Amino acid sequence: MSRRLSIIYSVLLLIFASPSLLSPVTGDLAGDRQALLDFLNNITHPRSLAWNASSPVCATWSGVTCNRDNTRVTALHLPGASLLGTVPPGTISRLSELEILSLRSNGLRGPFPIDFLQLKKLKAITLSNNKFSGPLPSDYTTWMNLTVLDLFGNRFNGSIPSGLANLTGLLSLNLAENSFSGEIPDLNLPGLRRLNVSNNNLTGSVPKSLSRFARSAFSGNNLTDDNTSPPVGSPAEKEKEQKEDKHGIYISEPAILGIAITEFLGKGTFGMTYKAVLGDAKVIAVKRFKDVPVSRKDFKHQMEIVGNIRHENVAPLRAYVCSKEQKLMVYDYYPTGSLSVLLHGKNGNEDHVPLDWETRLRFLIGLAKGLAHLHTQHKLAHGNIKSSNVFLNSKRYGCISETGLALLTNPVIRADSSARTELRYRAPEAAYDTRRSTPESDIYGFGILMLETLSGRSSMDDKKEDIELVVWMNNVLAEQWTGEVFDLELVKTPNIEAKLLQMIDLVQLCTNRVPVKRPEIAKVVEILEEIERE
């Protein structure tokens, strides 16, 4: 008996003495899921985050981004999520692969979450506009990958830690609108591009290592002298601002160096797209063009046209870079993924949650409204409609990306394997010449995308020996097998039969081979909204 007790004691001692056995395993997605659920269950959040323990973390959890293989959580974005109280310790810090953390504009309070320093792969952290208080930690040696630290608009006090100088990769540091006191430490960070310590209680002088930053970065303190560049409002700075604003949304080549590329998203007609992080921890999508057979002047002209388009169903162009070496475009990043990803999974992986009827319909309504805005207000055809270019906006309706880019490509597109996906969306009259795109050819592409959404099949039915989707549909309908057209997930929806028949009628109208017989986009919007109301 005593031996048995001895064995039990030894086992208990082993368990309680081993830190690795005290907390959940965090080396996989299951561990990340549990860490997020523990965070959610231990913090006040009047607004639902829609985190369901039974749903896929990477595909459906709002604010959560995973790596390319969907095996780990790499980013957590919860800005303005009505989070209240203190950050539960031992929750977020268990996301060992986390690279981006944004909790800005909430009601979080208490001291700086010291266990965040365990996130060794962190590249950007934004805690701005909360109610955090107290002094900052002194040691940051675990954050060797950090590029962005934003603590703006809190109640932190004490001195600015000299240990921040160890963050040698830091590009952006924002400590403004707090209650820091004492002198500014000599932060010898040659790579630092953005600094703001304004509106604190700082005294002394500006260190020479930081004198390259404008006076506005230090205003609202009690500094005794000025080693900084010309003050805000001076002729030199006004001239600089005017020069920067001259090109509207244009940003210079050096500015792009402040963007941290975090993930390759995909390759399309115009080039490659990456997920990236700006200096303020905002996540964006960056498209890098391959061959652009137009002059820099024409490229900039087209970018200014596209940049002035503002509509909730058209993905906005936020900025662009045009240099001799490369041409880039900056868009918002949509964490839920494109319609293509939600329909077919990433890289064609069928292991994903089927898209419900309401979401599919809202994708189509939003896309139709976006095209209506382009066609009527800007007299502009999109020219490259496909499911990988359609995303969900903040209102959960579709929005179209890559507007106006068809005019920047080679006029003749080869019918090789790399282009065949895009070709399947193009109307017969514009199949091999993107510069012949018209509102009518957009309607044809919309019809193909609509059929893809209803059937759950890709734009080309690979299982049918290279048969185009519209040909497959017509063959099925000719045999009176209408039910075979629709995704089985849609057929399960109660009272949907009549709506699906209306939708397939609209598909046939949109994909008419005669352009003038296709409906105008305004009529398409009207029909879809009527179906939504039924």
From TrEMBL:
<keyword id="KW-1133">Transmembrane helix</keyword>
<feature type="region of interest" description="Disordered">
    <location>
        <begin position="218"/>
        <end position="245"/>
    </location>
</feature>
<protein>
    <submittedName>
        <fullName>Inactive leucine-rich repeat receptor-like serine/threonine-protein kinase At5g24100 isoform X2</fullName>
    </submittedName>
</protein>
<keyword id="KW-0433">Leucine-rich repeat</keyword>
<dbReference type="InterPro" id="IPR013210">
    <property type="entry name" value="LRR_N_plant-typ"/>
</dbReference>
<keyword id="KW-0472">Membrane</keyword>
<dbReference type="InterPro" id="IPR017441">
    <property type="entry name" value="Protein_kinase_ATP_BS"/>
</dbReference>
<feature type="signal peptide">
    <location>
        <begin position="1"/>
        <end position="27"/>
    </location>
</feature>
<dbReference type="InterPro" id="IPR011009">
    <property type="entry name" value="Kinase-like_dom_sf"/>
</dbReference>
<feature type="binding site">
    <location>
        <position position="287"/>
    </location>
    <ligand>
        <name>ATP</name>
    </ligand>
</feature>
<dbReference type="GO" id="GO:0004672">
    <property type="term" value="F:protein kinase activity"/>
</dbReference>
<keyword id="KW-0677">Repeat</keyword>
<keyword id="KW-0067">ATP-binding</keyword>
<dbReference type="InterPro" id="IPR001611">
    <property type="entry name" value="Leu-rich_rpt"/>
</dbReference>
<keyword id="KW-0732">Signal</keyword>
<feature type="domain" description="Protein kinase">
    <location>
        <begin position="259"/>
        <end position="531"/>
    </location>
</feature>
<dbReference type="InterPro" id="IPR032675">
    <property type="entry name" value="LRR_dom_sf"/>
</dbReference>
<keyword id="KW-0812">Transmembrane</keyword>
<dbReference type="Pfam" id="PF00560">
    <property type="entry name" value="LRR_1"/>
</dbReference>
<feature type="compositionally biased region" description="Polar residues">
    <location>
        <begin position="218"/>
        <end position="231"/>
    </location>
</feature>
<dbReference type="InterPro" id="IPR050994">
    <property type="entry name" value="At_inactive_RLKs"/>
</dbReference>
<dbReference type="Pfam" id="PF13855">
    <property type="entry name" value="LRR_8"/>
</dbReference>
<dbReference type="InterPro" id="IPR000719">
    <property type="entry name" value="Prot_kinase_dom"/>
</dbReference>
<keyword id="KW-0547">Nucleotide-binding</keyword>
<dbReference type="Pfam" id="PF08263">
    <property type="entry name" value="LRRNT_2"/>
</dbReference>
<feature type="compositionally biased region" description="Basic and acidic residues">
    <location>
        <begin position="236"/>
        <end position="245"/>
    </location>
</feature>
<dbReference type="InterPro" id="IPR001245">
    <property type="entry name" value="Ser-Thr/Tyr_kinase_cat_dom"/>
</dbReference>
<dbReference type="Pfam" id="PF07714">
    <property type="entry name" value="PK_Tyr_Ser-Thr"/>
</dbReference>
<dbReference type="GO" id="GO:0005524">
    <property type="term" value="F:ATP binding"/>
</dbReference>
<dbReference type="GO" id="GO:0016020">
    <property type="term" value="C:membrane"/>
</dbReference>
